[in-house]
Every structure is written in C-alpha cells, then in structure tokens.
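[Automated response] Your request has been received and processed.

Submitted sequence:
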Amino acid sequence: MKAFKIMDSIMEKLCAFLMVLMCLSSFAQVANRFLFHRSFIWTDEIVLFSMVWVTFFGSALAVSRNTHTRIDFFISLFSPKIRSYFLAVSNVLCAAFCVALAYISLPVFRKNMKIYSSGLHLPNAISYFAVIFGCVIMVVYFLMLAAREVGNARGGAQKEGGEQA
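Generated structure:
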C-alpha cells in the first residue's frame, strides 16, 4: 500500500505542476498578445497536452480515493454485504471499461506518433499516451477497490460509504 501512496503523491504533484504550467502559459499568451500584439506558437499546445494529462491523472486520483462519480441510491437500500458485492462488480466493470478504452486508444496513439505539433514539434501521441497511461492506473485502482469491497462483504468492518474501518 505504501507504493500506492507514493504513486498518489507523485500524481498529485504532477497535476499541480501541470495546472501551474497551464496557468502560466495562458497568462504569458494573454500578456504577450495584449502588450506586444504577438502570439506564442507553443502555449496552446502546452495547455492542450497538460489538460489531457491532468484529466487522466485526476481521474486516477479520484478512483484511488473512491470519489469517482457513482449513483448509489438503489445500492444503498441493500444490506452492507450485498452493497459491497454490488460495488465490487461495479469496480470490475469500470476496470473493464478502462481496459477497453486503453485498447481502443492504442491504434490512435501509434498513428499520432508520426504527426508532430506545429509549435513544440512533439508527437501528438503524447496526448493519447495520457489516455492509455491513465486507464492503466485506473484499472489497478478499480481492481484494488473491488478486492476491498469483496473483503468487506466477507466480514471486514465497514463504515458508511463502503470504506473499511
């Protein structure tokens, strides 16, 4: 579990860095346009690449904290044991979706390795790798959550919201 805390910490720091980078790049672009009536060619690309990476790192962080969006009104009507099994199945289905998304993204990633951005001259595949990388991390977290819910259903102490005591 210590490895996952380290991974969470790294992703948090990367998200914070990328958010600051997006803000500074956008500010530089606006200031340059306002003051010098010129544009930087690279700022839009930095903001785009950073936004995609922040989206998928942030999604993985939400999964690791079990705060991803879920409508659990009907599930909450069941006993804690049944609820845990439903949540475990839900997490496995979410992991399967992430596997499918990563798999579908692979050909797009490969095709974009040969296409370079105009400003930074970096492969456009950088954005698509964020999808694959983020989905892989989310699969690991979803499976961990599913295992925890199965453990809860089999007799682990449980607090409200499906979290283990």
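Summary generated for your ticket: Residues 67 and 116 are 36 Å apart (CA to CA). The chain has one domain: 2-153.
If you did not submit this request, please reply to this message.
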